[in-house]
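Journal club prep, shared notes

We agreed each person brings one worked example of a sequence with its structure written out as tokens. Mine is DNA repair protein SWI5 homolog. I'm keeping it raw so we can talk through how to read the token line rather than staring at a rendered picture. Sequence first:
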Amino acid sequence: MRRNCNSGFKSPVQSPCSSQSSRGSEFSLQKEVSELKGKVAALDQEISQLESEGLSVAELEEHITLLHEYNELKDAGQMLLGRLAVLRGVTTKVLYAEFGMNLED
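Then the structure, token by token:
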């Protein structure tokens, strides 16, 4: 498939065609800013509610850290099971049963 090198270049940057479209885009931006401010206010209210229930940002960060650590350990275990299965010439499903593990683990 060949491209025509003599065709005109079309810039991806849109230039305002008229003052009316400029006003429309300004209104659109103002509306978007207003909606985002509303979302910020709703999130602030939700944070305040969670804090009043005794939850803290530090606690949430600790849970996230622990989940990352758990996932890394689980991935390492999965890799070891996979390698062991290859060495034994069986499927990992067989190893799960041998080690008394549930397939959803």
